[in-house]
Amino acid sequence: MTTHVTTPDLFAAELPEPRTEVICPGAVILRHFALPQEAALLECIAAVTEQAPFRQMQTPGGHTMSVAMSCCGGWGWVTDRAGYRYQATDPQTGQPWPDMPASFRRLAESAAAAAGYANFQPDACLINRYQPGAKMGLHQDKDEQDFDQPIVSVSLGVPATFQFGGPRRSERPLNTVLTSGDVVVWGGEARRYYHGVLRLKAGQHPLTGENRYNLTFRRAR
Ligand code: MD3
Ligand code: FE
Fold it and tell me: Which atom of ligand 1 is the closest one to the Cα of 195?
């Protein structure tokens, strides 16, 4: 009699399978979708932010955002006392934003395609950095020209609780934890919905330390 033993394959990558969760019509979480690219994405964030350093911008109301931001691609999102807008140059350096890395673009396009948006071509990538205590209050993304274009978001590093509301601020939001490698595609009616991120709790991630990064890919113009 032979005993069948399944030999563990030491070379098989132990990455969890991607899973799709629908939050509401138009909003799809692709769990673990970006995990194979995690390290490469973080290296690109480091390269971009060497040229366009993270900064905590001022809101039009005069508050300093707790989230530090940078951008790459043809358009970057900025805020100051004059308002929220997209602009082609980094106000801090006067230079054009760094190019969008090809790996960023490929990831955004393949995630959008996986969620049913075959022709998404982002021209802006906002890079958010959350350190412990940083948060983003409930808001809508409405500085882009065409709300028929989805937004693709990629979470990296320490997990955060994401709040997903409805078309009105008064609606009580649903909370979901986004962990490193999770990608969310926001289109359809969800594109206009309120959303935010709760205060980041202290944590450690092997590649990012205490930080959480979030990439949002947008079509600004
Ligand atoms: C839902 N960033 O940068 S990503 C933002 O985790 C922003 O840093 C958050 O909201 C973050 O504007 C959330 C998820 C997200 C992005 C865009 C959306 C959710 C969205 C646009 C419409 C609806
Ligand atoms: Fe947003």
Answer: 1
Tally of domains within the chain: 1
* Residue at 3 is within a domain: no
- Atom 17, ligand 1: residue with shortest CA distance: 151
Name every protein residue with a CB atom under 6 angstroms from any ligand 1 atom. 126, 128, 136, 141, 151, 153, 184, 186, 190-191, 193, 195, 197, 214, 216
In a domain, 12, yes or no: no
> Is 56 inside any structural domain?
yes
Nearest CA to ligand 1 atom 4: 153
Distances (CA, A) of 30 to 7, 37, 45, 116, 181: 30, 14, 21, 12, 9
Residue 6 counted as domain residue = no
For 48-97, the pLDDT digits (tens) are: 999 999 999 999 999 999 999 999 999 999 999 999 999 999 999 999 99
CATH number, domain of 37, equals 2.60.120.590
Residue 1, pLDDT above cutoff 50:
no
Contact 190, 145 (CB under 8 A): no
Closest residue by Cα to residue 16 from 34, 40, 43, 42: 34
d(CA 64, ligand 1 centre) in Å: 18
**63: closest CA among 125, 127, 137?**
137
Distance 188 CA to ligand 2 centre (A): 15
pLDDT above 70: residue 209: yes
Q: Find the domain containing 152 and state its range.
A: 17-218
